[in-house]
Amino acid sequence: METIAALYPDTTTTEALGVDALLLVRPYQVLAHTNKSHTRRVTVHGRDLAAKIVDFHGTPKHTSWSARELYDLEWNEVRAYHALKALQGRVVPEFLYHGSDLNFLWATAVTTYEGVSLRHLVDDKGKLPAGAKAKAIGALRALHAAGVLHGDAELRNAVWRERDGAVLWMNLEMAMLRDEVNEFAAKAEREVADVASLLEDVAEEAPPPRRSRCAFTRLPLCCA
């Protein structure tokens, strides 16, 4: 079986990642906390990052996942980012590095931080920015065109990037590649339909008014 190191041989050492140091970065914001991992928003060398941190020995304490299963999920997410290299920064966040501490107690996969989730926007404001629904569907179709099923296409896993109004999909630990999936096209369409159903009753903000173009009257030229 492929390993994470085989996919990203230049970025899987403790020296490259400094996961022990990453755990000590302050301040940080907890973006998500599940029974498999927790994700922190941190700033390192001036870059806004999202670090998904996995404890292979049972943190959080209520997890039912084994260390082997957690490793496989971590590996699968890194592999999906590798398959989507051409779409990083546009459809999915930019993958920066993966690594573990020397004792292999902790591991983390680090990407750029791109914004808040669509789920958060709906819960907080009751609606999405103008055009967000179509962009979410378009980005999901771009994943499929690249040969990747997201596998967990929920609103919590799509983020709105405010600076340019893009929607990006993240949290790819359940992703599946085309050559591993029977009837890939049908399952891709089902994934799109499921997301469209989630978005169906969600309101969107009105689009900003279009700037009107000034009309100029062409005057005849007069000859002296």
Task: Write a short abstract of this structure.
With 224 residues, this protein is an alpha+beta fold.
Can you offer a commentary on this structure?
The chain is an alpha+beta fold and 224 residues long. The chain has 2 domains: 6-112, Phosphorylase Kinase, domain 1 (2-Layer Sandwich), CATH 3.30.200; 116-201, Orthogonal Bundle (Transferase(Phosphotransferase), domain 1). Helix content is 30%, strand content 23%. It contains 7 helices and 12 strands. The protein has helices spanning 4-7, 14-17, 19-22, 67-83, 118-125, 132-145, 184-199, and strands at 29-33, 38-44, 47-55, 95-100, 106-112, 116-117, 127-128, 148-149, 158-161, 166-169, 176-177, 203-204. The strands form 4 sheets. Strands 1-2-3-5-4 form a 5-stranded antiparallel beta sheet. It has a 3-stranded antiparallel beta sheet with strand order 6-9-10. Strand 1 (29-33) and strand 2 form a beta hairpin. Mean pLDDT is 82; it is low at 1-5 and 7-17.
CATH architecture of the largest domain: 2-Layer Sandwich
**Overall pLDDT metric:** 82
Q: Percent range for helical residues?
A: 25-40%
Beta-strand segment tally: 12
Tell me the CATH topology of the largest domain: Phosphorylase Kinase, domain 1
Kindly list the characteristics that best describe this protein.
Phosphorylase Kinase, domain 1, 224 residues, 5-stranded antiparallel beta sheet, globular, 3-stranded antiparallel beta sheet, Transferase(Phosphotransferase), domain 1
